[in-house]
Amino acid sequence: MKNEDIDEPKYQCKLKFLSYCEEAPLPVLLIVVDIKNHIAYWLNINRKVLKSLRSEMKPDAKSISLKIPKENKIEKSHNEYLSKWEEILEEHKKYKKLSESTSLEQIMSISNEISKIKSEHPDLDVKYKIDTATKEKTISIT
After folding, report:
1. What angle do CA 30, 90, 50 make, to 5 degrees?
2. Residue 52 carries which DSSP code?
3. CA 79, 18, 66, 52 torsion: positive or negative?
4. Residue 90: inside a domain, yes or no?
5. What domain range includes position 15?
6. Quick one: pLDDT band at residue 30, thresholds 50, 70, 90?
7. In terms of domains, do 55 and 111 share one?
8. Would you call 40 helix, strand, or coil by DSSP?
9. What is the C-alpha to C-alpha distance for residues 14 and 3, in angstroms, rounded to an integer?
């Protein structure tokens, strides 16, 4: 972290890292350290942050400046950041449960449709497969 960034913490971040953040299965916290003043700042790089950065990105850019809220401080004498990090994890757990239940609903809907097709056309063999690694969905009818 540069000295001129102390009043308004920021970090020049590579777009490749932000691409990773977009696909990351867990929350990503960027931690920037001011070694001279023994202070670190953190930023939760979530969908909201990524969305706001898209409007600032230039087509040929390889990096972008991330502004970090000054209150997102990590200091030896204060540990308020820990409760904020716990909130981030709890929010992630809620979101994950919501997305998993949505996926389950979609699977049940597809399963019902396949059952309907099988009952109307007993001579067809209909299968539905989800590759858990790639999340690719395949329906085969023979």
Report:
1. 40
2. H
3. negative
4. no
5. 3-78
6. very high
7. no
8. strand
9. 20
Q: 23: which DSSP letter?
A: H
- Supply 72's token pair: 């997102």
111 & 63 share domain = no
Residue with tokens 């309907």: 116
- Given a cut of 90, whether residue 55 has pLDDT beyond it is no
- Which strand (E) or helix (H) includes residue 100? helix 80-120
18 contacts 53 by C-beta, under 8 angstroms: yes
Structure tokens at 22: 């977009």
- In the DSSP assignment, the letter for residue 4 is G
Q: What is the pTM of this model?
A: 0.62
- CA 57, CA 52: separation in Å to the nearest integer? 9
Q: State whether 69 and 21 are in the same domain.
A: yes
Count: domains in the chain: 2
Distances (CA, A) of 7 to 19, 35, 66, 70, 129: 28, 15, 14, 8, 53
